[in-house]
Here is the input.
Amino acid sequence: MYRLFAASCVLAVGLLMPAFAEDDKSNSNPAVRKLSRDIPRHKEFLKRIEQNRGEGDVIFLGDSITQGWEGKQAQPAWKENFGEFKPVNLGIGGDQTGHVLWRITEGKELENLKPKVAVIMIGTNNTGGHSSEQIAGGIKAIVEELKSQKPGIKILLLGVFPRGSAKDADKETKTVPAEKLNKKIPQINTIISGLDDGKTVFYKDIGKEFLDKEGGLSKDVMPDYLHLSGKGYEIWGKAIKGDIEKLLK
Here is the structure.
């Protein structure tokens, strides 16, 4: 087996959704440009997939947060919640939407897999240089590519997880207050929620599960206010196990 929030948005969905079509027509969206990921971890994926063709009822596509399922603290939650699904972890640290696009096209990571469900959580690494609309366009491109390559696949599209900055954390509680959390995240999630068609793509925002009752982000859940602790992975696993079970039926 591979070892593998939600604050109010300042823009309405109806105002942001046209960005998809605009980006698609102009091909100018930097978050849609394929970025090569021909690195050892990608190559290792290809080897493992070739050797374990029976694996992969469920694949997880993402960045370091997804890759983190392979960590010692996350492994118990991975096995408990997903072990029976023959899961494949296709997360690579540092990935932006463009990297994932390259990996599933030129990188051929899906070529020898026959997944029934794909879990996608990507976009946080784009927030430093791309707009919310651009990032959402990159996520849409990944979803469309998956649908094209694997007809019949069910996609569990997760909202981008909340994130903060250590410099904004309260020194005593070690919690980043709600008003200090990254503002692009809820904007991205508002847009991509519109990709849910109730047939192939199913959107779910579990970000609020990581927050405290005041809407802040605790170091207990995300030690660096980005990556999950063991507790964070337990929350993630429990939050989507039932969804995966339904999509596999």
